[in-house]
Write a structure and sequence with these properties.
The complex is a heterodimer of chains A (about 350) and B (about 325). Chain A is mostly helical and about 350 residues long. Chain A is built from nine helices and eight strands. In chain A, the strands form three sheets. In chain A, strands 1-2-3 form a three-stranded antiparallel beta sheet, with helices on one face. Chain B has about 325 residues and is of the alpha+beta class. In chain B, helix 2 links the parallel strand 3 and strand 4. The N terminus of chain B is likely disordered. The chains are: A mainly alpha (about 350), B alpha+beta (about 325). Chain A: Keywords: Nucleus, Ribosome biogenesis.
Chain lengths: ~350, ~325
């Protein structure tokens, strides 16, 4: 929408009311103004002129009164800008729709509720309490064509399952066709779950991140140089345990049993017979246990002394004698040995 | 987005495909919002930064985010694998654009060769469409302007945009910059606008062959004799000098495809209206059945009054008869 404003130099601005945009293609700075402030002032002046031009056309548009203020219907913008997404493609006809079009079959609107003869009520066409439900059939009469030994109720269920599967297959085919053109509906996504495997249709097992890391390491060690000189990808961790995993004694060492083998057998035997049993016994813990027990006994004795004397007097000296020959003996001897 | 799905497995002949549909209404509505439409409304902007940013650049990015508050996404981490002008360095940008559904992006970075660098780009179908690289000089932030706070433009109002200068017609780079700036500053495309709510304007002046002065102003509408008020611009917002450094135009095929529009919108079906050759336009009106008995009568209807009087009389009679019976007993 070009609007001519009669300015002094008779120049026209390009005004696009739909975008509230105005362009002045004729202004130029013959020489840049000396100071920044003057530049800013001149820019604002020119800007004001342009904004005034847009406002002139905007406020002259027919307006309707609204609660907040006058509402104006903007004309469509004239400057063309590129879209952000592609144009939506019209969805293709499904196989049934094509067939129906060819045969001239019209879509009929179905009622929500249907009259059920058996119960004599209005029931839904599908869903919870529906008209011709499989579980409501009490008796199925046998026909001449029926084979003996075939359960007709199970047969009905199987037939229904097959029909549902066929319908799902057809739906998937229709969606695949739409995806091929690029007109898949926005809320549907098709995902390939598995790549085709010849033979069985078993889906491949999901491999975890750690397993993949291990596999990479294993594959590297199978190279001639043991994976030492392979170029590593960014983010690849080094192999977990490098070098030999087990250490074996040399086959031939000297006459008879070698020193290293002797060490091995000695450590095993010692563990079994517990020669260095001080290493097995926790000395500190034993001492604490003994001390705790002693304190408990002394506490009990003091309480008993306070409460009654006759019964315990007989026992007292005996107890004391027993205490002295307590665990102190072996502990002290072991202490000596440990050092 | 793919958290709640309903999966239907089916063994097809060659590849096992799975139909994923959202189980949630909210997810379904989100997907529909992101689907391509015939007529497009506003574009969302993604604002992010590279490995190094300067203080001024941080200010620029945050002020652009403030100006576009409703339709912008701000990333604050540094992204060192984004190089918009290199062929491989756009993958991350395209991924972000896909995930946040943004088709405009502003990428800021600072280096010795290109100080205070801003790359403004657009996407088509979440692939880079075109890019403009500008340097920011003489940046003045919102805080440094003194103005009457009552006039401050409100968030989300539609701005007036003004381009001044012959450079915008003659110089290629400035032409491209003009288009990109228009896209960035425009906001939502609306059909109706409230005249009381216009309060901001962007002024863009071409100072030299590659320099543009951009400023954001508040509008004051002053009384004039006519319907049209007199406009007054007061600088409020950020102002900066943009120096065009590099730009990349879209290739022709892509540009043609992006500029395509739907020729005519399918006319909305008006219900209960049909047109005939003989009688012209006919409309059907459906009137519900009148319930004559339940209609509310006005208060002072004579009949109603009489009924009340009679009812009262009846009651009185009944009471009297009761009393007589009691006395007799």
């Amino acid at each position: 929408m070009t609007m001519e404003t009669e300015t002094q130099s008779q120049k026209a601005f390009h005004v696009d009311v739909g975008n509230l945009l105005a362009v002045n293609p004729f202004h130029s700075f013959p020489s840049l103004p000396a100071s920044r402030d003057e530049l800013v002032k001149e820019c604002l002046q020119e800007g004001t002129k342009l904004v005034q031009a847009v406002a002139d056309s905007l406020f002259n548009l027919p307006s309707t009164e609204d609660v907040d203020g006058p509402l104006v219907k903007l004309p469509p913008p004239t400057t063309k800008l590129p879209r952000e997404k592609h144009l939506p493609k019209p969805k293709p006809l499904t196989k049934w729709e094509e067939f129906a079009k060819k045969k001239g079959i019209q879509k009929r609107k179905k009622e929500k509720v249907v009259w059920d003869e058996q119960t004599g009520t209005w029931k839904r066409r599908f869903g919870y309490d529906r008209v011709n439900d499989d579980k409501d059939i009490p008796i199925i009469e046998a026909k001449m064509t029926d084979e003996p030994g075939v359960d007709p109720f199970a047969k009905r269920q199987d037939d229904k399952k097959k029909r549902v599967e066929k319908q799902e297959k057809n739906r998937l085919q229709n969606l695949k066709q739409a995806a091929k053109i690029g007109a898949l509906p926005s809320h549907v996504q098709l995902a390939a779950t598995a790549l085709p495997i010849t033979g069985t249709q078993a889906p491949p097992k999901k491999v975890t991140k750690d397993e993949l890391g291990n596999v990479a390491g294993m594959a590297a060690t199978s190279t001639a140089s043991g994976g030492k000189f392979d170029r590593k990808l960014p983010g690849e961790k080094p192999a977990k345990k490098q070098g030999k995993h087990r250490k074996f004694l040399p086959v031939v060492e000297g006459s008879g049993i070698g020193s290293r083998e002797k060490e091995q057998t000695e450590s095993v035997l010692n563990k079994l017979i517990s020669k260095h049993s001080h290493e097995i016994l926790n000395v500190g813990k034993a001492v604490t246990m003994y001390n705790v027990k002693k304190e408990k006994k002394s506490r009990n004795k003091r309480n008993q002394e306070g409460k009654s004397s006759s019964a315990t007097n007989k026992l007292k000296p005996k107890k004391q004698l027993q205490k002295k020959t307590g665990k102190k003996g072996p502990v002290s001897s072991k202490k000596g040995k440990a050092k | 987005m793919s958290n709640n799905e309903q999966t239907l497995r089916f063994c097809s002949s060659a590849i096992m495909m799975r139909i994923k549909t959202p189980k949630n209404g909210r997810v379904r509505r989100e997907l529909e919002k992101r689907a391509p439409k015939l007529v497009e409304t506003g574009k969302k902007t993604l604002i992010l930064q590279g490995t190094k940013t300067s203080g001024t650049l941080n200010g620029v990015l945050s002020e652009i985010y403030h100006l576009k508050k409703g339709g912008a996404v701000r990333f604050t981490r540094k992204n060192d694998n984004i190089r918009p002008f290199e062929s491989g360095g756009e993958a991350s940008l395209e991924f972000f654009s896909l995930k946040t559904d943004c088709s405009l992006f502003v990428y800021g970075s600072h280096s010795k060769k290109r100080p205070n660098n801003l790359v403004i780009g657009r996407m088509y179908d979440h692939h880079v469409y075109d890019l403009v690289e500008v340097g920011v000089e003489n940046f003045k932030s919102i805080e440094s302007f003194n103005y009457d706070k009552k006039m401050a433009p409100r968030v989300g109002s539609k701005p007036f945009i003004a381009f001044v200068g012959e450079g915008f017609e003659n110089v290629d780079e400035l032409k491209h910059l003009k288009e990109v700036l228009l896209d960035l500053l425009r906001g939502e495309v609306v059909e109706n606008i409230n005249l009381a709510g216009v309060d901001r304007a962007y002024v863009c002046t071409a100072i030299s062959l590659n320099k543009v002065y951009l400023t954001h102003c508040a509008l004051r509408l002053k009384k004039s004799g006519t319907v049209v008020p007199r406009m007054e611009l007061v600088e409020v917002g950020p102002s900066m000098d943009l120096v065009v450094r590099r730009h990349r135009l879209p290739n022709e095929g892509l540009r043609k495809e992006a500029m395509r529009t739907a020729k005519d919108q399918p006319k909305k079906k008006v219900k209960n209206v049909s047109s005939d050759a003989i009688e012209g336009t006919i409309g059907k009106i459906y009137i519900p059945d009148q319930k004559v008995g339940d209609v509310a009568l006005p208060n002072k209807a004579k009949g109603v009054k009489r009924e009340r009087r009679e009812a009262k009389k009846k009651e009185a009679n009944e009471r009297a008869s009761k009393k007589q019976r009691e006395e007799s007993e």
